[in-house]
From TrEMBL:
Residues involved in substrate binding: T126, I127, D128, R163, M170, G171, R172, E223, R247, H253, V254, Q255, R256
GO term, biological process aspect, one: canonical glycolysis
Catalytic activity, as annotated: beta-D-fructose 6-phosphate + ATP = beta-D-fructose 1,6-bisphosphate + ADP + H(+)
Subunit structure: Homotetramer.
Gene: pfkA
Organism: Pontibacter ummariensis
Class in the EC hierarchy, top level: transferase
Pathway: Carbohydrate degradation; glycolysis; D-glyceraldehyde 3-phosphate and glycerone phosphate from D-glucose: step 3/4
Record localization: Cytoplasm
Positions with a binding annotation for ADP: R21, A22, I23, V24, R25, R155, G186, A187, E188, R212, K214, T215, S216
Name of this protein: ATP-dependent 6-phosphofructokinase
């Protein structure tokens, strides 16, 4: 292997830049040429590809977003799109790829590998932490800390006004962001897609709290749950509790930005190195991850099809700690 390409795809995540930096520098350290592919699979299709040097990744370790830009490509989902992408890689002489992204990215990488066989190793880059094959994904720790910071501020005003705040966090269809936000943010209730929390339970918990002289409440709602969005949950609860003074905050894309935490920079650097070393030792069609402090490589197909189960004890913790 002589020339590798690196790209970021799907939703951006803090720490992606630290990972790009580690990949570029490890490749150069190992005597490889390294090419940046802009805007994920779209850039691969268009041939938006440039040679990267060590200085191309100077002063980016602390920056949020991704210097390679990102996109969710519909064209790459077609056979024709993937053929164009392959031709571009051939033209540039790229014989190995590093993909930084989440389940959509690895779904594409898996199909591409089956069709064209270009060795690809992935780094898990998503705030959702929903990939099997790693304890944590790059960007998750930062997103949780960003959310917690916002929740702390909401708590101040909730307390001043005796209000119930319904706060929606991201996660697509996973509760990984919601759980530490609820435990660390001292929430009374957490609702995640993986478990059923009924509106009746929310109503009862609030009533019980008021009886115990609690005056303000934080309810954390992960997007993607059956009960609906924070706005919908709040409206349903309000019907049963017309006197409740409620507000809804959707944290949204603020969770995707910002400077990565130390934990994310460390993880991104470790996994960036592991991706290049993986390619050099013949790994293909796998994602590098850290499980119990050990580096592991998991086939893409497993990272996207196997469930990463949330420990139900975390839900109990929210209940116990808000008594
Ligand atoms: O996968 C990361 C994520 O931020 C999810 O938590 C969220 O559901 C989705 O991306 C939002 O996507 P977009 O930025 O395309 O609106």
């Amino acid at each position: 292997m002589k020339k590798i390409g690196v790209f970021t795809s799907g939703g951006d995540a803090p720490g992606m830049n630290a990972c790009i930096r580690a990949i570029v520098r490890t490749a150069i350290y190992r005597g490889l040429e390294v090419y940046g592919i802009r805007r994920g699979y779209n850039g691969m299709i268009k041939g938006d590809i440039y040679k990267m040097e060590s200085h191309s990744v100077s002063n980016i370790i602390q920056k949020g977003g991704t210097i390679l830009r990102s996109a969710r490509s519909t064209e790459f989902m077609t056979k024709e799109g993937r053929r164009k992408a392959y031709e571009q890689l051939q033209q540039h002489g790229i014989d190995g790829l590093v993909a930084i992204g989440g389940d959509g990215t690895f779904t594409g990488a898996n199909i591409f590998f089956e069709e064209y066989g270009i060795p690809t190793v992935g780094a898990p880059g998503t705030i959702d932490n929903d990939l099997f094959g790693t304890d944590y994904t790059i960007g998750y720790d930062t997103a949780v800390n960003t959310s917690l910071d916002a929740i702390d501020k909401i708590r101040d005003t909730a307390d001043s006004h005796d209000r119930v705040f319904f706060i929606e966090v991201m996660g697509r269809d996973s509760g990984y962001i919601a759980i530490p936000c609820a435990i660390g943010g001292g929430a009374e209730i957490v609702m995640i897609p993986e478990t059923d929390t009924s509106i009746e339970y929310v109503v009862e918990t609030l009533r019980t709290g008021w009886r115990r002289s609690k005056t303000s409440f934080i309810v954390i709602i992960a997007e993607g749950g059956e009960a609906g969005s924070a706005t919908e949950v709040a409206a349903k609860v309000q019907q049963a509790l017309p006197h409740m003074d409620a507000r809804v905050t959707i944290l949204g894309h603020v969770q995707r930005g910002g400077s990565p935490t130390a934990a994310d920079r460390m993880l991104a650097s470790q996994l960036g190195i592991a991706c290049v070393e993986g390619l050099l030792t013949g790994r293909k069609n796998v994602m590098a991850g850290i499980i119990n402090a050990e580096l592991v490589y998991t086939p893409f197909i497993e990272t996207i099809t196997k469930d990463k189960v949330i420990n139900p004890q975390f839900i109990d913790m929210v209940n116990i700690l808000s008594v």
